[in-house]
Amino acid sequence: MKKNFLIQTLCVWIFMMMSASIQMAEAQEKENRQEQVAETIQKALDAQTYKIDVDYMYPMKGRSRALTSLYSLEVKNDSIYSYLPYVGEAYSVPYGGGKGLNFRAPICQYESKEGKKGATEVLLKTRNEEDSYTFRITIYKDGTSRIHVQPNNRQSISFSGKINPNDQQGPSK
After folding, report:
1. Total domains, the chain
2. What's the mean pLDDT in 9-31?
3. pTM of the predicted model as reported, rounded to 2 decimal places
């Protein structure tokens, strides 16, 4: 009977050790993946070439809305490619409503700095034939992003999304 108890105890101990080592290996693998993603995102930010797939919109008035995967904001070197919906009050727009936030334009000013909790904060300004825009983008190490757009002739609007680290070839539209 004592022999059976020792064998059972040994088996439980071996099982616990194997489980602990598997968990440690999985945790290390997850940490390595997170580091690789953070590295890829930082390289894209340094090169000023990245695409944020937008999944949620937060207008100043009204309720926030989930979006389809069709919307994005791309920065490529000295240009911005904005494929974003707009909901809000317009103070002055061209006849027919204009383009809203669906445009391609050169970047007039681009500033990037490290923010809170290791996030990168990007301030960029641009203008097109309709309006001038200030984009404040916060990008976290895991790729999640917040975008705040302040047009001159419309109410501001915010978006959330995620940088796809595997999709850093530049504009696709």
Report:
1. 1
2. 78
3. 0.77
